[in-house]
Amino acid sequence: MTRLSLTLIATLAGTTAIADTNLTYGPRPAYLISQMDDSPLKTQLESCAAQTPTRSDFSIGHRGAPLMFPEHTVESNVAAAQMGAGILECDVTFTSDLELVCRHAQNDLHTTTDIVTSDLASQCTTPFSPAAGETPAAAECRTSDITLAEFQTLSPKMDAANGAATTAEEYLGGTANWRTDLYVDNATLMTHAESIEVFRDLGAKFTPELKSPSVEMPFNGFSQEDYAQKLVDEYKAAGVPASDVWLQSFNLNDVLYWVENEPDFGAQAVYLMDEYDIEGYSPQDPSTWPNTMAELKGMGINFIAPPLWMLLTLEDGNMAPSALAIAAKEADLEIITWTLERSGPLAAGGGWYYQTVTEAVNADGAYFEVLDVLAQEVGIAGMFSDWPATTTYYANCMGL
Fold first, then answer.
1. Does residue 368 sit in helix, strand or coil?
2. What is the rounded distance in angstroms from the CA atom of residue 17 to the CA atom of residue 9?
3. DSSP assignment of 7-30, as one string?
4. Cα torsion through 52, 53, 58, 62, rounded to 10
């Protein structure tokens, strides 16, 4: 970790580890509560307005706090820790010299950094091409296109691209109108090893996700197993106990590799469920599931993490646990879910993340209503959020 970043943490956090006395909810939880219809839940949440924030492992920073900060940056994670997130995430990809870095995808540098306007632009898998007629502007730039040293020269930005751009400079725009570019300047990228140091200094625990490679594996002699092992080895090298780490992957084989080869870490490795990509799949119909919840438990998996819509359904117009959620609890699986406050304003029904409960989601206050059903009826162990203050406030108020 660079001296600049360590100084930044000390400056923003007040100390190397953010004490509970320095935590803050900010104005957003109160705003969301004000948008709720009158209900016992609203009354209870209002009663906690004067509570003192405390850190909660129920509150997980999704790439930090990317509602307003560039994801996977020091600044984004400092903000999440200040909001009481007890666990922070580094999505892990690798560079051409096989170093692990924090990026949501191996091929997202063109939307999350300034690479298309940098001296590295020509090294992209698909360099920038301008919009022409009905063909939008495009680029594809991978961490595996560049070395670690080159990666560290890039400047992060909000995850977005301007499809109408005719120049590379214009392509860097496109930030959603419900996000902001206010906190982009001088943001700091992180390697995975640096994220371990940063998160520990912030007083948080760890949930790294091993991202699916965009290149054919093995890559430069680096196998998928090498990749999964290197992730664990960096925690071992840093002296982090396995009990503080929740490894994640959408690749079931990665999770099973950790269960078999690194049982201490594998005990709370998280299987991120993307079965929704299977044609005909329904969380309400067990006959469409590739594995039952009991079968996953039998493989040695203790934690699953489906998107929140897979855990919910509507019964007489009210949100309720889905068949998947019920089966997971019956199989004694711990459930983590994603992602709260990823969709922006909920007046239009919340989009992809709320697709099974769209009819019940029509105002920003529904964020708390969704969270309450997931916590109290589904029984989730943790919630990823793009703005962790909301989840921390709820967890503190409900004694989670």
1. helix
2. 9
3. HHHHHHHSSSS--GGG----SHHH
4. 160
Distance CA 102, CA 143 (A): 10
pLDDT tens digits for range 284-312: 999 999 999 999 999 999 999 999 999 99
The C-alpha atoms of residue 111 and residue 302 are separated, in whole angstroms, by 34
Token couple for 297: 């438990």
CA-based angle 363:364:369, to the nearest 5? 90
Of the candidates 148, 147, 112, 141, the one whose C-alpha atom is nearest the C-alpha of residue 124 is 141
* Dihedral sign from CA coordinates of 132, 134, 137, 142: negative
- Helix intervals (H) in the chain: 3-13, 28-34, 40-47, 74-82, 109-112, 148-151, 168-171, 192-201, 224-237, 252-261, 263-266, 293-298, 323-330, 366-373, 389-398
pLDDT at residue 318, as a whole number: 96
**29: which 2 tokens?**
């939880």
pLDDT of residue 9: 56
CA angle 137, 143, 145 (to 5 degrees): 80
How far is it, in rounded angstroms, from Cα 262 to Cα 245?
A: 12
Q: What is the pLDDT of residue 19?
A: 65
Distance CA 283, CA 211 (A): 24
Contact 101, 92 (CB under 8 A): yes
Close Cβ partners of 192 (under 8 Å, ≥ 6 residues apart): 90, 92, 100, 101, 102, 208, 231, 234
2: three-class secondary structure by DSSP: coil
> Measuring CA to CA, which residue among 202, 257, 270 is closest to residue 230?
257
SS3 category, 101: strand
How many Å apart are CA 115 and CA 109, to the nearest integer?
7
